[in-house]
Design goal:
The complex is a heterodimer of chains A (about 270) and B (about 1000). Chain A is α/β, with parallel strands linked by helices. Chain A has helices at about 15-25, 35-40, 70-75, 85-95, 105-115, 180-190, 260-274; strands at about 5-10, 30-35, 50-55, 100-105, 130, 140-150, 165-170, 175, 195, 220-225, 230. Chain B has a 7-stranded mixed β-sheet, with helices on both faces. Classes of the chains: A alpha/beta (about 270), B alpha+beta (about 1000). The interface between A and B is large, with 62 and 69 residues. Chain A: Keywords: ATP-binding, Cytoplasm, Glutamine amidotransferase, Hydrolase, Ligase, Nucleotide-binding, Purine biosynthesis.
Amino acid sequence: MTKAKALVITGNGTNCETEAAHACKLGGFDEARIAHIAELLTGEVTLDDYHFLNLTGGFLDGDDLGSAKAQANRLRYATVEGKQERLVEQITRFIADGKLILGVCNGFQLLVKMGMLPALGGNYLNQTATLTYNEGGRFQDRWCYLKVDAASPSLYTRGIEGGVYLPVRHGEGKFLVDDAKTLEMIEAKHLSCLKYSDKNYTAATMEFPENPNGSVNAIAGICDETGRIMGLMPHPEAFVHRTQHPRWTREELPEEGEGLIFFKNAAQYVKENF
Amino acid sequence: MPHRIEITLKDEVRDPRGERIKREIAHFLHLEVADVRTIDVYTVDAALSAEELTQVAAGPFSDPVIQNYSIDKPAATGFDYLVEVGFRPGVTDNVGRTAGEAIGYLLGRPLAAGEGVYTSVQYLVSGKLAQADAEKIATGLLCNTLIQRYQILDAATFKAQGGVAPFVPKVQVEAKVEVNTINLEVSDEELMRISRDGVLALTLDEMKIIQAHYRDPQVVEKRKSLGLGAAPTDVELEALAQTWSEHCKHKIFSADVTYDDGSGKTEKINSLFKSYIQKTTADVRAAQGDKDYCLSVFKDNAGVIKFNDDWSLVFKVETHNSPSALDPYGGALTGIVGVNRDPFGTGKGAKLIFNTDVFCFADPFYEKELPKRLLHPRRIYEGVVEGVEHGGNKSGIPTVNGSLVFDERFAGKPLVFCGTAGLMPATIKGEASHKKNIIPGDLIVMTGGRIGKDGIHGATFSSEELNENSPVSAVQIGDPITQKRMFDFLIRARDKALYRFITDNGAGGLSSSIGEMSEECGGCQLDLSKAPLKYPGLAPWEILISEAQERMSLAVPPEKIDEFMDMAKRYGVEATVLGTFTDSGIFHMLYGDKTVAYLPLSFMHAGLPPMQIPARWEKPVHEEPKLAPAADYTTDVKALLSSLNICSKESVVRRYDHEVQGGSVVKPFTGVDNDGPSDAAVVRPILDSFEGVVVGHGICPRYSDIDAYDMAANAIDEGLRNYVAVGGSLDLVAGLDNFCWCDPVLSERTPDGPYKMAQLVRANKALYDYCTVFSMPLISGKDSMKNDFYDGTTKISIPPTLLFSVIGKMEDARLAVTMDVKRAGDQVYLLGATANELGASEYLAQKGFVGNNVPKVDAQAALATYRAYGAALKAGLVASCHDLSDGGLAVAAAESAFAGGFGIELDLAQVPFKGDAAEKSDIVLLFSESASRLLVTVRAEKVAEFEKAMAGTACAKIGAVTAEPTLKVKGLAGNVVVNAGNAELKAAWQEPLKDL
C-alpha cells in the first residue's frame, strides 16, 4: 500500500505546524513532514511527493495587509529555484492530481484569498469570498459548537454525527462572499460544511459568543465541490486528546478528541485512493 | 513622486474598527459622533509604473470581496472631519514593511534602497463637532504624538485642497559619521551636566571613576599609540553608561546596605542579590544534594532546570514599564517579544512554549485630574493589552497565565511583566545545550532586524524616573514576524550546531550583548560600519547602543560561517559578520579602519565600587478599623466580586491565544460555562507525552503598605499555592523573582529613600526565609527600581511589588485539578487555618482602610498542607481545588460555586481558626486573607481517605456542594450570613471589565 504522506508548511508566521503534524500522525499518516516555505522555494521539498497539504494556523506576515494576504501574493508570484515554475503551479497540479488540502484558520484565510475556496466551477484562482475582522472587532479564543452538514461533499467531516466542538482563535474569521449568488451556490451545493451552532447542534446561530465572528449564514468552514479541499476557522488539530477539552476535568470524555476525525478521514482517503 | 493608494471598505461592509473608535470617543471623551469610518492609506515611495501601481492596489493591498482601492485620488466622502494618523519618521511600520515585500514579490524584484511603503489610517468622523473636538479626538484617542503624526481636515478644506497630500515619513538625517571626544577635565558640576544632558544616568562618583581611568598614564600612552586622544570618545562614554546603568548593572541590588531594623540594631549587607537571592538558590541546591535539578541559574538570559532526561525547561520574566508608560502599545509589544528572546538566547537556544503576563494599572475608570504627560489609565490598559495580544498571538506562543492588578499609584507608572518559558533538548550533538562558550577567533554575527535610532538610551532612561523630557527615541515598536522568521531559522541552525554562542540584543544593544560575550573569551574587535542600518546617518555610538528590536548576537566558528550565512539567506533572515572575538582583553570598536572605542574589559565590567545605601525600617501604623458585625454580608461579597482586583478578566484573556501549540491542559478559564478563573496553568510541551509543565504566580502589592516582608512572603506563598492547587509537584519546582520598586536611594528627591530601601531589604529577607523552607530555588529574575513619576511638583511612587512566578512539573498532567466544583453531594474542605488578618485586604480597602494585621505566612504549616494535598491529588481524591486570596473564603467559595454550576453551603463555625478566640468573627472568617489556604471539594465516597491524607494539617470539613445553585453561609451564631444565587454572584463578578 502507498505510504500516506502529509506535508505541513511553516514559515513567515505560521504557528500551528507542530500540533498539525502531530494530528496527522495520530490520524494515520505514515509520514508528516513539517517543511519551511524556504524549503519549497528552493526546491528541497516538492508538493508532488505528498498527498495531504496542511495550511495551518498562524499570522502569515503578521496578517499585515489583511489576514494571509501577503502569503497569497507570495505563493502566486514566487518561483521555485531551479524549476521553471511558480509555487502556485505546484499547488494547482496538486489539486488536479486529486490530492487533499486542509486549511485551518490562517490556512483557511489563505485558501480563500488565493481563490481556492469555494472555487465554484473548479476555478481555483478566483477569489469570491473572504474572511475579515470579527464583528466584535476583537481576537477571540473560545470553544464553539459546529453543526456539520451531513450532505456536504467534504471528505473530512464524514461520519460526524450532529457536530463537533472545537476552539476558534482568531481576529479575522468573519466569512463574507462577493455576492448573493456565490452564497446561494455554496449553500445549494452543501459546501458550507460547518456552521456555528447551539450546543445541541440543532440550528446555526448568528448570536455571539456561539457565533464568535458574525460570519454570514454562520459559516465556520467550507469545502470545494470535490470535497477534497476544505478550510475552517476552528482548529481540529487542537482537540485530538481529551485533556485539550476545556471541561475534561468534569466530563466523562473519550480518550480521543473530536478534531481527530478530520485527519483520520484524510488518511483513510489517501490510503484508499493512492 | 510618492503615490497614495487608499483602501476603503465597500459601502455595505461593516467597519468594526470604525465602530470601536466611535464607542471609545463616547466612552473616553464624552463626545457623541454619528459615525466613524476608516480608510487604510499606503504611501508608496517607489518607482512604479501606473500599471504596476494598479496591480499592487488590486492585488496584495486590497481584498476585492469587501474593499475598493483608489490611486492618487482621495477616496474619502461623507464626513465632517477627517483625521489621518501615520507614523513619525523612523518609527517601525510593520505593515509598511510587509507591503514593500509584497511589491517585491509581485514585481519579481525587491524595492531599491531608499524606496519604501508607509502606512497611515484615515478616520472619517461624522457628527456635530467643532474643530476643537476633532483635535481632542486626534490627540486624546487616535494618535500617540510621541510616535505618530496626524492631520485634521474639515470637509470643506479637504475639498478645497483636493484631499490629503502625500507625505513620506522618511528619516532624513545628515550623514555625520563623526566621532566626538568629551573632555572630562572639568568641574564636578560640568561632569554632571555631561551625564544629564547625554541621558547617561551616570552618578558623579561614576563620572569621576571614568575621569580617573583616562588620567592613568598607561592608558594615555596606549591610546596615543592607537591614534586616540586622552579624552574618551562618545562611543566609549556611551558604552560605559550602558554597561554601568542600573538597568544592566543592578547597582541597587549589588550595593552595600546599612540596614537599621527599627529597633536600633543595624546590619551591614553586602549585596542583596548575593546575600539573599543567590544564597537562597545555593542553600536549596546544597540541601537537595543529588536531587538538584538546577542546570543554569543567574548566569544566562534565563534560568534553566531539568524537565526530564531529554529536555530542559527555561523561564524568564521581564518588565517593560517605562516604555509602556509612554507608548503603551509599542512598549508592551516590545516587552513580550523582548522577553521571548531571553529563553531563545539562553544556552544554545530554546523553543518557546508559553508566555505569562501580569499588568498593574490604575483604575481604567479613573476620573480625577492627572499630571500632564501621564496617559489616562484606560489608554494604558487598552494599549498594553493590545500590544501583548499582538506580540504573543503573532509569535505563536500561548499566553497561559497572568493577572491584572489595580492600584491608584500605578497611574505614575504601569507595571508590565512579561514572561516566556522554553524547552530545549538536554543535549545537542552530544553537548549540554544549556551551556555555551566562545573561542577567540569566532566571528561576531548579528541576525534579525536592522539598526535605527529607535531605542536609543532605553537602558539609561529606564534607570531614571519618568519626567516631562523623557526621550522619544527610547520607545520601540516590536515586529513579531521578523523575530519569528529569525527564530525559525536559528532553531534549525542550532540543531545543526552552526553556532557556539547566542544571546539577545536587549537593553544597551550591541554594547551590552557584545560586551558580555567578550567576557566569555576575553575580548572583541568589531567594525560598526558593517552593521546593517534602517537608514543612513547613524553615528557610531548610536549604532553601538541602539535597542532596535528583533536582533540576536552570535559567535559562529569560522568553519561554519558559510553554511550559517547560506541558510540565513534561504530563510529570508539578514545576518551580518561584524567582527571577531579575541582574547586581547579589550572591547575594541572600529568604524571602518579607525578605532572609535578601546576599553579594557577589566575596566568596563569591574570598574565600579558598590553604592552605599542607607536603609531604616520603621513599621507604619495605620488606623485600625472597628468593624461592626452585620446580620448579612451578601452585599459585601457581591461588592468584593465586583472589585477590580477580583472581578473577571475574561474580556482580556480571551484576546490571548492560550491554546496554540496544542499542549493546553488547564486553561485560564474552566468550569461548566468555561468561565471560572483557574489558579494556574498546566501545559504539555511534548505532545506525545503526558508530562506537564505547571506555572503560577503570586503578587500582592497592597501588603507593602504594612510590611514588604509580608508582601513578599505572601507573594511567594500565593505563587506556590496556585501551582500546587492544580497539581504542580513540590519535588521539581522553581521560583522567579521580579522586583518593581520605587526609587529607594536617599536623595533630595527621595527623602524617604531609607524607608523604601528597608522595604527592599525586608522583601529579600522573606525571599530567603520562605524559599529555603519550601526548597524552591530561585532560577532567574529581574529588578526595575525607578518606578516613580515626578514632574517637579507631583510625585507618584508605585507600591513596592514583587511578582513571584513559580514553574515546575507534574509527572502526569491527566491528574490535574481545576477550581470548579464538580457535583452535588461533594464535601467541602478548607485547608489551612484562618486568622484575624484583614490588614491590607481587599475587604478593608473597600471600606476605606488599610489596617495593620497583614497575613503572616507560616512556612512549615504551609509546606505540610501542600505536601499532604499533593499526595491526595496524586491519589485521585480531589474533585476541585481553589486557592484563597483576595477577598478570602467568601470570594473563593463564590467563584468555585458559579464556575461549577452548583451551590455551596458552608458553616463558618467549622473553619479552622488560629489566634485569640475573641478575634474570631464572621467578618474575619469570610474575608480575612490568611495565607496558605485552599478550598477543596471531595467526593463523598473518598472523604475518609482524603481526611487520612490530610491528617496532621489544619484541615476541616466546612460544608457541602449542593444541587441548588446558591452560596449559603452560616455564621458563627448559626444564622445565614451570606445567601445569593450563582447567577447574581457571577453577574457581579463579570460586570466591571466585560466591555473593555
